[in-house]
Amino acid sequence: xxxxxxxxxxxxxxxxxxxxxxxxxxxxxxxxxxxxxxxxxxxxxxxxxxxxxxxxxxxxxxxxxxxxxxxxxxxxxxxxxxxxxxxxxxxxxxxxxxxxxxxxxxxxxxxxxxxxxxxxxxxxxxxxxxxxxxxxxxxxxxxxxxxxxxxxxxxxxxxxxxxxxxxxxxxxxxxxxxxxxxxxxxxxxxxxxxxxxxxxxxxxxxxxxxxxxxxxxxxxxxxxxxxxxxxxxxxxxxxxxxxxxxxxxxxxxxxxxxxxxxxxxxxxxxxxxxxxxxxxxxxxxxxxxxxxxxxxxxxxxxxxxxxxxxxxxxxxxxxxxxxxxxxxxxxxxxxxxxxxxxxxxxxxxxxxxxxxxxxxxxxxxxx
Length: 367
Ligand code: ADP
Ligand code: GN1
Ligand code: MG
Description:
Bound molecules: adenosine-5'-diphosphate, 2-acetamido-2-deoxy-1-O-phosphono-alpha-D-glucopyranose, magnesium ion
Oligomer: single chain
Helix content: 40-55%
Number of helices: 12
Shape: globular
CATH topology of the largest domain: Aminoglycoside 3'-phosphotransferase, Chain: A, domain 2
Distance between the termini: 49 Å
């Protein structure tokens, strides 16, 4: 997106201070267009996050914003009750000049702005396992703080987001349609999915049968969706709230494992570097259980390893679907990146299949 246009339009839409000094593309999210904007006025420098929402992915942006308004207000209240810092421990939306919490520009793009969480970092890979532990405590905490949120007021921002069976059907449709003529080049990956069809309905089936409860969950618990305080090392703020909606706790756990417990980047091409670290798995599990504060049922706890495997399988299938459909969903920065991402996920699934008894043992050792 043209920075000049952002300066002239989106920035003007919000109640920012005077003295714009910088607009830079920011972060490594796969979905929205994110910018950091800086203002200097009267000796004070203030920074904000300005985001163009991806309305191809989020078809009803106003519903996404209404969810975020509700959830952040709820969290602020809880944080205040515990004597926390309401400006740093959750996102704060910056109002637009018309009083709304979003701004629609002349081209119909939806924008929103947040306070920039200062003095904290979002990591793309685990550098220190303590950070991973703290991220787990925070994601667990997040779920606990939202445990009594009125779930019926939340819109389903992406229908069937973690319905793995539905993802499987969409994948099969993409293979059949093969609109880019790419299927012949990925026969092995397609076969990998078809050999594991049963996995797709495992957790959804348990939810249908009432064996896993629906909770208000984050649904996108990647390590880079949490800010870690630069001084204390604590997970200070859970960000990227677009997909907060009813879901499964085991999926929130699993999505963190597939990303953070991997020994390599999500798009690593050298698959010999990719495996699921049992040390990091244990670290995260300990933190997550602590953060959830005893709210998980014994069966949820038992199914945490399956959550990891299912989320990794689902994510790999989503990357492959997007590759087959011409890379229209996840942002890519090079040709074949979604295929590379798919391959790391499938490598992890294979590794997790072998390590399932070990993961089970780790979990039972923690309860
Ligand atoms: P996406 O949905 O594209 O992943 P995110 O909301 O996760 O978008 O934002 C992308 C990145 O921008 C995050 O991973 C983080 O690094 C950074 N970011 C987002 N919001 C903030 C914030 N309020 N303060 C500091 N950094 C942020
Ligand atoms: C996307 O938005 P971001 O980059 O935090 C995606 C997740 C995937 C992840 C894979 C709304 O997360 O579901 O697991 O990429 N978010 C959406 O890295 O689809
Ligand atoms: Mg993100």
